[in-house]
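Hi C.,

You asked whether I'd gotten around to modeling the 369-residue construct. I have! Everything is below, sequence then structure, no commentary in between.
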Amino acid sequence: MSAVRETKASTLKTPPQPKTAPRVISGRVVRAGTGGLSLRFQSRTVAVTALLFLALVVVIGITLTTGDFKLTVGEVVGALTGNGSGAADFVVNTLRMPRILTAVFVGAALGVSGAILQSLTRNSLGSPDIIGFTNGSAVGALIVIIVLRGSMTQIAIGALIGGLATALVVHLLLIGRGLQGFRLVVIGIGVSALLLAVNSYLITRATFQEAQEAQAWLIGSLGNRLWMHANTIGIALAVLLPPALLLSRRLSMVEMGDVTATALGVNVTRTRTILFIISVALAAFATAVTGPIAFIALAAPQVVRTLTRSSGPVLVSSALMGAFLLALSDLVVQRLFAPALLPVGTATGAVGGAYLIWLLITESRKSRA
């Protein structure tokens, strides 16, 4: 009895916690006040994201200062602020800056697109270039380029329509079977092969000059990219990325399963539909600007999950990883293979092919276990 009394007395003596003071739980969740407002973060994820940002800045700096016409950091800054010489201004603002910004924006779009799709399908092979959405976007863009001879805006619209149409076809083939499992990958590979045949047919119907341009575009290239290309993918990213980030927490719940997500108050059908459209749209606009660039959407989210050790999607880090991988690949093909004009898609395809082989072996071992 005396122990019970001492416990009650000590409890009564404990001063109440102030309601307005922030409360930290496990060092990762911060709650402010009693209104239910909270912020969850992981220190490892923050560190990886910061390092990726710094690495991307370094790659951008090297790209802008090196090449046939070498520049100092001061000359680059002067050109960007309008105080540079005529030659530096032309090299930075006309040749290099639009290209590197296009690489950064396209890589970020592909990274986020792959992260969303892999999370929705709960499959590490659920990537827009594997499932065929990228090739579908390429079909739509090629129709505008070869048949309609449209502008950059019309090419982007055609790529978006082609990507969404491909997503609809894949969805119809999977009705009643769900988005999970290797069935999606197998159907996506089949659809992708059919779309490649359509692309080849369109090229055969083009003139010699159009066929050359289309074939170079199908490999995936950042050559001769202007401000209109950077602006197109930049605007698409600015419009589509915020809603994806707002729905990222629901995406993590959907990844745990429909039953669990519904129990937690998530409208699974609406969340999946919105995020699915965002993923396809990001891949479509990226394809419209540079052509289909392989394996960035596949590899970036997987590498980020390995580095952050996160069980759910990490969209910001995936965007930075995609931007870093594509910018670095473009820098390599520009500097190591000069003066040859090697498309960046050849570099990502070569490295990504080896990564895909390793991923398939890993997934096969997991399925056997």
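If it helps when you're writing up: The beta strands are 23-25, 29-32, 37-40.

Thanks,
B.
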